[in-house]
Amino acid sequence: MSRRTRRTPAAAAPTPPAGQRPQRRLWIAVALVLTLLVAAGTLFWVRSAKVPAPAVASSALPAAVTEAVAAVAAASYVGAETCKTCHESEFQAWSGSHHQLAMQEATAASVRGDFANAKFRKDGVESTFFKRGDKFMVHSDGPDGKLTDYEIRYTFGVYPLQQYLIPFPGGRYQVLPIAWDARPQGEGGQRWFHLYPRQKMDYRDPLHWTGVYHNWALQCAECHSTDLHKGYDAASKTYQTTFSEINVACESCHGPASAHLDWARQARAPYPPQGSKGLPTLQSRWNEAWKFPTEDARFAVRDRPADPAGMNSCAACHARRSTLSEDRKPGATLEDSHRLAMLTAPNYHADGQQREEVYVWGSFLQSRMHQNGVTCMDCHEPHAQKLRAAGNALCTRCHAAAEFDAFKHHQHLAGGKGTQCVTCHMPTQNYMVIHARQDHSLRIPRPDLSIAFGSPNACTQCHTNKTAQWAASAMDRWYGKRWRERPHYGSTLHAGETQGLRALPSLLELAANPTAPAIVRATAATLAQPYASPATLPAARALLHDADPSLRVAALGMIAPADPVNRVRSGAPLLSDPVRGVRIEAARILADVPDTQLPEGKRAARAAALQEYETALALEADWPSGQVNLGNLRLRQGRADAAIAAFERAIALDKGFSGAYVNLADAFRQLGREPAAEETLRRGLAVLPRDADLHHALGLLLTRKGEQADALREFAKAARFAPDNARYAYVQAIAVDSSGKREQALALLRSAKQRHPNDVDILGALLSISRESGDHPAALRYARLLAEMLPDNAGLNRLIGDLEGRQIDH
Prior knowledge:
By secondary structure, the protein is an alpha+beta fold. Helices cover about 40% and strands about 10% of the residues. The strands form seven sheets. Strands 2, 7, 8, 9, 10 and 11 form a six-stranded antiparallel beta sheet that branches. α16 (about 445-455) runs antiparallel to α18, α31 (about 690-705) packs antiparallel against α32 (about 710-720) and α33 runs antiparallel to α34 (about 740-755). The relative contact order is 0.11. This is Tetratricopeptide repeat protein.
């Protein structure tokens, strides 16, 4: 790793779509009736309507970025010390901040941990922290399991914990999972602790600290240094990572400043507007923009919208996302350089509350504050990263104190924790064991939703011995019951994750709702993707024109299963979208379309967007999932040999990545190399003997070979190891029925229906088998349940009429 003064070409980073499942065939015909009934739900028709080009997203390139982008593109990095010359107060505020201390060389001044031969023991391994001269050392287990002395080269973070980076061959830096608790001793700090206290792993596990997933450059480095370029070479599996500054310095947010420096050398008063100074404007006017419109107003309002460039600069690192490009324009919308994670499990609870570590942005985008124009800098001073005011005074700048900082509102005694706005509206969750992070969705507590689908609520976070029902009853006494009637998108998103096709109408309605937060709408569209059909194509096309790029990306995912004609007509205009992430998704779903089927004017656009996608995939070539995504692209392009090479690289990076084995086996299948496919799946099972995906894929392969008894055993294992997977339960039942054990198959299907009451395949199989068995009352019952999810299916409605006629005849 080295510092740079000159920019070098970018490599590439974590990409959007997850690995696709291979196509699967069954050796049974018993579900034929179902196939006919729901064909309309899985096939797209060709329409001749023209699709207009999408509107340019207002957030694609903010005004300040548009004005400064030409200068910034040609600019170079000059360093914080140069900025200090004219911006002394900002530099001093930044000095000592978490950004300035994000990463440092390991010295006596920067290291906070106890290296006086301190010992830490976990899973039978005793690690010792000590000094050797001026060097900080750790004696711990290495990639071969042997205890070895390692030098700590860099510190990572500063408070409430500090981690340490250790150099390895090939330019790698591995992050030690034993961290220093920097909190005061009275708060439980000043100790070594393990970041994964409940996970037991040894050197053979990919999650061991010397393995791929603890590689600094893989997922940590980008947001702890300025102008970082990973520099990974897939052929040699080595890194030449570079940065202009070791920490998060001025130009991490403002962009390269040489053009601004040139302007400053020649500038004379009166000075031009901000956008003409060689850097984008990153201001919120926090102190003057918000005013109470009347003396008795409950809320302040902003006089005019803030330029989104400031918040966009924060989003690039304060979001759960994957990276599409290292060449990020300062202030540009996040989707131009990254792909944002949606509000789905396991990252979020069903109502959008943080669950895994999601780094604020996805939470804040849900909030009323964001919708009403609040920016990050309205609350946070960006250089020192301190709040603009302490305690409730921060909130009462915009929320009338007499109304909200009062007992009638919070119903808690003065001086207690319950009187603090953040306690109820920004509950915390610990990440990295000790780091309590507040949920920035700034929501009103809804313990009724906790009762409905198990999400947390702020009330029982403090009152840990109470239930959500108790909290809801207390709110009823304080505020009446009307608070329960407020609609909440969490109910729709929860249905989208639990009710299958039944949730589709509400998901489409939410996705189309212009008053809902854009990230909520995009999540709804994402959850609708598995149920895309001819009926959803108009809804998807409407979303393709939305101003928010995340909506356009999700809508492209909805049209991905369509026939080539509809995909081209709907997706081709977005190959020229102003936002890179949208262009990449359009290229992905059109990657298999021959040039002859593309409009002549879009062929060059597709080639350029595909190149952007391939650059993004190259940037994440050190991720096993990145190689799987590359393999999937090559399969889509009909390049099976290249796909096989990518899947093999994924397995080399992580031998426990089951999706790589499954997709590799499918690539062999497509080439007619069934023995190689079987060897691949058995190779994966030797590493992952309880992996349901591998057992299921092997069952399908054995089915193709005609080895039905062995296939049935594999299907049974898949269903047993993944009881929540409706597809595996369905396939097992169908295989059992095909072996002549109809009653056992029905028993399996009924049991699966209890766990998955809205699964179309399971209901269809119950309908089909019941009808073939002559149990027409049961068949009618299942047909009516299917009709609730497929109300316009003519074949199903005819079948119901036939079954009802049989009931009358009897």
